[in-house]
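Section handout 9: paired folding examples.
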Amino acid sequence: MEEESFKSKEIGDIMNEHFVCIKVDREERPDVDKVYMTFVQATSGGGGWPMSVWLTPDLKPFAGGTYFPPEDGVNHVGFRTVLLRIAEQWKENKDALLGSSQRILEALRHTSEIRVQGQASPPPAKEVMDTCFQQLSRSYDEEYGGFSKCPKFPSPVNLNFLFTYWALHQTTPEGARALQMALHTLKMMALGGIHDHIGQGFHRYSIDQHWHVPHFEKMLYDQGQLAAIYSKAFQISGDEFFADVVRDILLYVSRDLSDQAGGFYSAQDADSYPTATSREKREGAFCVWAAKELRALLPDPVEGATEGTTLADVFMHHYGVKEAGNVDPARDPYQELKGKNVLIVRCAPELTAAKFGLEPGRLSTLLQECQQRLSSARAQRPQPHLDTKMLAAWNGLMISGFAQAGAALSEQGYVSRAAQAAAFLRTHLFDPDSGKLLRSCYQGTHNSVEQGAVPIQGFLEDYVFVIQALFDLYEVSLEQGWLEWALHLQHMQDKLFWDPKGFAYFSTEASDPSLLLRLKDDQDGAEPAPNSVAVTNLLRAACYSGHMDWVEKAGKILAAFSERLQKIPIILPEMVRATAVFHHTLKQLCFLPPATYPLPGQVVICGDPQGEDTKEMLHCVHSVFSPNKVLMVADGDNAGFLYRQLPFLASLERKDGKATAYVCSNFTCSLPVTSVQELRGMLSP
């Protein structure tokens, strides 16, 4: 529509004559987007972007839709005609339009309300978990992984749920299938074209069933969630393949999406100019290759391979390159990828090596050399546009990705990068006077960081993703300042967003009169719904602070969503996972001369965080996937905050002067354990 309609002088003149036109960045203002998308979905039966909505002067919607072509066609009305008809109706039938708008709004208020019904309680975890697993299993693609035919999205929320389901059902066939579904999906994604094999990171989604041809946009929130889920895959499987994917994602983010001040940029566009002299951008131009181009870049004969073999032969075979291009024309309606290749691993390394008479280790070296050459060549192409907007919520997801990777891979550099980004949030997206988060800031001139003239206040998603990130960062860095800030933000979130009547959190504050509806997101999508993450955050916060009212709040959220969780849990897999955590004991791990009474499932480890014996236990904790553990470490001067929050910690002692673990259940602690092997057994789901 930008090219077809908004750049048209004729259409622009019509818009400016009859309407006050406002362009909204839905990433900056998800609250505005959500209200009017709800209207468009209710009145048209569908939704999506670009979205055009016509409002009264007091912001009430009366017409809307998604894509409009510029002119009328056989089966559609053009944008020009829509504009003129609406302008005419506003002059001739204004009262009817206003009445219709008011009736629709009242209906939306009723149908979009999520609230606790009667004396509803949290739904039973087993039934909800089993139903969600069955629904995912039925939609699973056995050959290529994922949960639809096409388009195919990474959907980290589904994979996170499957890992938790496996952890709680390890000895059952269902548990084994859950693990297989998740690991196979992650492997096929990493081998596919949705993964950028030259520039690293993951594209937005695949337009086909095979994870081959992507929509080439790269989003920060995908990188953060995928770094975390691939870290879990490595914890569970021990397969270095998954660890390498984690490193790949974080290399891309560190190089291309990082601001010098420490924050993370939002996205990299899908389209770019094919050459410096091109006048039109093309989707994927920065990422795709012609076979002729690859042969020119990789002409070297391969020593020790079958006679006549070049680097190009090996690379092109391994990555499915075809002389005429490997993109199905049916998937390329505008012929932007004609004659081009999207790299996708088509052969196991052993098969590629065997075809050319190479040792597998030698093949790996050759492919790395090819990737480096192609990376250098690609760097000479015009770069896609970089969206240097920095959002609190998405930065939170990326901090979690770095922190969880640092823990699972024992990479201190990742932990340091997470801490740098958290410090950026505290400096640029937190108002210490009000104690509130801000939504966004921007790369300014001369590498400065700028705010808008009127800063946008943080939304619920900003709070929950930042709180989650701070908990993740605390557990791997042991810096109690992050924990203290997380608990402060949890109190502020309760104050700003909690619904005391219907339970759960609204997505927006009550203080903005321009918003016609206060809504609660009811689906996990590309990002988990804020209330889904809030449940786990509240449970973690209770373990860190001893405030049991947070456990009660977590239960009230699950009660408010109980009907959805029991009927269609597949739309809320992250909240289903949180339901299991709520019903199963949270394992709380504390390293300290450690808490009024222990909470069920706590594991307390008393020891000096700098001591080698404590470090061994910490490494053990970080190397084991346990979906319901909470880790605390404190000792000596560094333990003051935790001692004040959890007085029972002071009653636990080291055994024989060694770092000592205690597992707590039913509000009592087990016998002390000093063996890492025993601790590993205690942590296993």
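Moving on to protein 2 of 2.
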Amino acid sequence: KCMNHEHQFRDNESTFKILIATDIHLGYMEKDAIRGNDTFVTFDEILQIAQDNEVDFILLGGDLFHDNKPSRKTVHSCIELLRKHCMGDHPIEFEILSDQSVNFGFSKFPWVNYQDLNLNISIPVFSVHGNHDDPTGADSLCALDILSCAGLVNHFGRSMSVEKIDISPILMQKGKTKIALYGLGSIPDERLYRMFVNKQVTMLRPKEDDESWFNLFVLHQNRSKHGATNYIPEQFLDDFIDLVIWGHEHECKIAPTRNEQQLFYVSQPGSSVVTSLSPGEAIKKHVGLLRIKGKKMNMQKIPLQTVRRFYVDDVVLSDHPDLFNPENPKVTQKIEGFCTERVETMLETAERECLDNSKQPDKPLIRLRVDYSGGFEPFSTLRFSQKFVNRVANPKDIIHFFRHREQKDRKGDEQINFDKFVTCPAADGMTLRVEDLVKQYFETTEKNVQLSLLTERGMGEAVQEFVDKEEKDAIEELVKFQLEKTQKFLKERHTDALEEKIDEEVRHFRESRQKNTAEEDEEVREAMNRARANRSEEERVCFVISDDEMDISEPRGEDSDSSVVPSRGRGRARGGRGQSAAARGTSRRGRVISNIQTSVSSRSYKAPVVPPAKNMSIMDAFKSSSRHPSRTGTTKNYAEVIVDDDSDMEEEDSFCSSKVDQRYSKRPSSKRSSQGQISRGVHFDNNDDSDDEYLFLNSLALTRNGY
């Protein structure tokens, strides 16, 4: 009887089957001799699971790629795997009801890939972008857009506006089941937090029969609180949502947990590869097989078999006074021997578990975190790692030494201590962002070295772009942009040409910009766009002077510009063949190159000479005058409490049902008042088949009040 019930729901024509995965990070450590293929092997397994279970589609929660500009090997391997598993003659059994030109408006082919007559798709893939593979550059493109243009992935959830976000769902129907799929790609957490507080985020709903839709929302943001506004509280999300798929967090908590305040469920699939040697990554990795029928859902956890095993252990030396005495001259040798035993124990555990799964890589990841507070000294990690070179996948960073230091308040000549910015760096696996480090540095440094013209927020964003997105002009363009804004302000104020007066006006101007965070965000965005435009301009100039576009065998005349010499140099020099080939292909498609006057022939060429830009000094600002501007800005504070549920059951059946006021078809996201809400519960059938992992349990219908 149990098997018949299971078969009924698996093959029901109204049951959606969706494979859920996030944070695959293709290309992570691809140059490592041992771990280089880990991400590709696991991605192959994920797609094979989808194929074996004959899912309707795959839903990815961001960070498909680890690098913003993935290598050719990574992109090639990704396309190879998608073609292998997601293309074929298997029929698609659901249809799209919404306006696809809105859902995929950023694509040159604004429709779902399986409806393209030139493609033969068996498993559609829907994905939002993450913070690792988000759109960047002058054209705001990302690696997912390449896959989307190739017809392999349906990229949705893009929002480029910094003033307002309207999230329009992809409406799907299979039999009698209807899903409203909402998506929001990665946005800087502080900006999105502020937009939620200011009610600038709106989730659009179907006007007709809104009670019958199962509302599924996928996003890629910080769920854990990393700062006052550097995360997104669950309470910010609309309470008509039934299930939230939360990407970005790597710890696997895929079993849906209920938010008792908003009355929806949250599933955090976690990453499929270990990218940081923290305890959260040591939890077994899973993907989810989500079944939806009507307003009922079921999440089946499927463990990944090809993920490299990771073991982590902690040692606090001060907790073993009977073994280690800091005064003993041989205590360091004893500590090293003790750590060796701990690592050997983890290796023995790995060997035992490896016998049960032949698909796992042979060499595990090992991490031993040693707190040497209390007068102890660390030993040589290089010498220690030599003992395990052929037995572990990460011999260079097996040992991590750290200690807690008590900071003493010192006045006068105080140096910046970065240890206070990182409290127990590896204790909880939190990642310190570059922009946070820059901001904290300038907020705590001495007054005479603090920023007086630039803002900490802007500088932090620029450094973040430089580090993460390789925008080499980001910092320079930010400095230029904020300098120009300050000069313009001084002109309009008719400031006297006195150093003291200038300093005072600059200080007031800087304070007013710090208060108006929205305007400051716009300034930073404009500066980053300038940097991206500069890079794009350089790439276009490089392709014009490429040796593939001219014949350089012709001897140059005496009137030739000797300062412009096309070169066939090695390495990644400008004008290389790779760039030229790509750009030439683009040009043949009819793309127009603006702002460059060129004349290219097969026999000769003379490149344009671009004079360097000249920056104005502050004193140059007094040569002209203009009107007086007025700048005002307000900031809002918002505090939330998050309910943290750390359950990790192997199988979780969660079902939700809702009735929403049909008067509202467009609702801004905001925190809901607890008054007027009717609690929603989940009813579990009390019958003999309650242990069936595929059984769809009934849920109580409820009514939630509108605004």
